[in-house]
Write a structure and sequence with these properties.
By secondary structure, this protein is α+β, with helices and mostly antiparallel strands. The chain has 13 helices and 28 strands.
């Protein structure tokens, strides 16, 4: 038994020695392999230099086809316009349109119209119809055309704004702007900022010289991104008669990208001249889809000159009504015995056309010897003629040619209920420090508002959140007959009385107000606000 134990012990010792030998042998082999591989890797990482030459940044070379020179000249005169409006609560539906002024306001997806969750939020949260007025902010663009701070933009950018702020290119400061005048018929407006320095300006060119296919640049602040430049060509000229286009709007069409926020910015030709004011887009998605519209610079120049001179645009009229497609139909003209012209559908009562003996069904074939083929051929010479101008018309009635002489009158007087907003009528030039827009109480207006025999000035509009609305409670159609016991019978009386008022002074307006079939006499009183409260 002892021998067996001894033999087992020897066997175990031999196995231990062999195991140790194999472990040592494995370590030695591993070390040798690692050394060889490490050496090879080190050899691979070694760098002995190359004969390659270093690259250098070359001097800048302007591209021969670059628009940068044009942008550098015009862009400093392009501004960003931010406005604040106070709006009454309205239902969330039926506010959609695809042909639109390109401003980022209430342009939602049509699929949202019947969203029950949206209806829930509208009823129980901020969208309640009976909720208080809310402030709404929007962005647009404009272009400085006078170094003293006069800026041309779109009317829809600043319309109904209670506050207008302008940011110059490369300047973080915001300047409060005042409205010089606006024209709803062309959607153009002029605003002014006070800056203690001369400002860069953009030159307006002659839009009649632009040809389809010419390169143009659109500059503005799409979606609030200032100093954005896009390029395209003129796609068409004299475009009108669609969607939101109004009677006096004939557009330049372009495929340069125009998006919400571009409104009021310039469309520039390769001579660096502004040949249009970007105004509208056709889109199914709210953004750019290749069809944009700019009001021609020649239209903008005419409107601008009248706004800075009179605060409003005056257009002539003779009081005829027609529908372009129906009134110029060649089959209709032939049946009436007229080779060309415009068929009159209706005559405004008391208008120059009625006084001259014209009737519905007559075909006007020429104005002052100029042949009439389209509605614009008839409207433009009359609209552009000075008030009081006598014009010779040739017309056809019962297949017989006749002549008449008409005297051009102010369109807002000929069509008092349809010729633009009431606030665009002559009272627009009157003082509006209190948010009041007023005009003379003419005989026609007195009849229309049930104020026969009354004297004063009529309130045509009241600015939201203004002293006139919030403190005095004025409304459209009110007639001001006295201010601080001074009789008011005309705009001149109104201007004189308002000019005497000083900040902090009590003011009492005697007002005639229509209520059902009666005319009430009410007194609206308040304290004249300080200058900084008149924005």
């Amino acid at each position: 038994m002892g021998e067996q134990v001894k033999e087992l012990f020897n066997w175990a010792r031999r196995r231990k020695i062999m195991a140790s030998f194999f472990v040592a042998f494995t370590l030695v082999v591993g070390i040798m392999i690692g050394s060889v591989i490490s050496g090879r890797v080190s050899a691979m990482k070694s760098f002995s230099g190359t004969d390659a030459a270093h690259l250098t940044v070359p001097d800048p070379i302007p591209s021969a086809s670059s628009f940068s020179g044009i942008v550098n000249r015009v862009e400093p005169a392009v501004v960003n316009i931010a406005t604040t409006q106070v709006l009454e609560k309205k239902p969330a539906s039926k506010r959609r349109y695809n042909i639109q002024p390109n401003k980022p306001k209430s342009d939602q997806n049509p699929d949202e119209d019947n969203d029950p969750m949206q209806d829930f939020f509208d009823r129980f949260f901020d969208g309640r119809q009976d909720g208080p007025p809310q402030a709404e902010r929007s962005l647009g663009s404009g272009v400085i055309v006078d170094k003293r701070g006069y800026i041309l933009t779109n009317n829809h950018v600043i319309e109904n704004a209670t506050k207008i702020q302008v940011q110059l290119n490369g300047d973080t400061a915001r300047y409060t702007a005042k409205v010089v005048g606006a024209d709803d018929d062309t959607d153009l407006a002029v605003i002014k900022i006070e800056v203690n320095k001369e400002l860069p300006i953009a030159k307006l060119g002659n839009s009649d010289g632009v040809q389809v296919g010419d390169w143009v640049l659109a500059i503005g602040s799409p979606f609030g991104l200032q100093a954005t430049v896009t390029a395209g060509i003129i796609s068409a000229k004299d475009r009108g008669g669609f969607g939101l286009a109004k009677q006096f709007q004939r557009f330049i069409q372009t495929d340069a990208a125009i998006n919400p926020g571009n409104s009021g910015g310039p469309l520039v030709d390769l001579a660096g001249q502004v040949i249009g004011i970007n105004t509208a887009i056709i889109t199914g998605s709210r953004g750019y889809e290749g069809v944009g519209f700019a009001l021609p610079s020649n239209t903008a120049i005419s409107v601008y000159n009248q706004l800075i001179s009179n605060g409003r645009v005056t257009r002539g009229s003779i009081g005829v009504k027609f529908e372009e497609d129906l009134s110029t139909n060649p089959i209709t003209l032939k049946s009436l015995g007229a080779p060309n012209g415009v068929v009159i559908e209706d005559i405004e009562p008391g208008s120059p056309a009625e006084k001259a003996g014209l009737k519905g069904g007559d075909v006007i074939t020429s104005v002052n010897g100029q042949t009439i083929k389209t509605g614009n051929d008839l409207v433009n010479p009359i609209a552009q003629a000075p008030i009081g101008t006598k014009m010779k018309l040739t017309y056809v009635r019962d297949r017989t040619q006749k002549e008449a002489t008409v005297t051009v009158e102010d369109r807002t007087h000929v069509f008092p209920t349809t010729a633009g907003r009431m606030g665009d009528q002559p009272g627009e030039a009157a003082p509006i420090e209190f948010g009041l827009h007023v005009d003379n109480l003419t005989h026609d207006r007195a009849q229309r508002f049930g104020m026969d025999g009354k004297k004063g000035v009529i309130v045509t509009d009241v600015d939201p959140a203004s002293f006139a609305q919030d403190d005095l409670n004025f409304g459209r159609g009110d007639v001001i007959s006295e201010i601080n016991h001074e009789p008011i019978t005309s705009l001149d009386d109104y201007r004189t009385a308002v000019s005497k008022l000083k900040p902090g002074q009590n003011v009492v307006f005697k007002v005639l107000r229509r209520a059902d079939d009666r005319v009430l006499t009410v007194f609206l009183s308040g304290v004249v606000p300080a200058e900084n409260e008149k924005q």
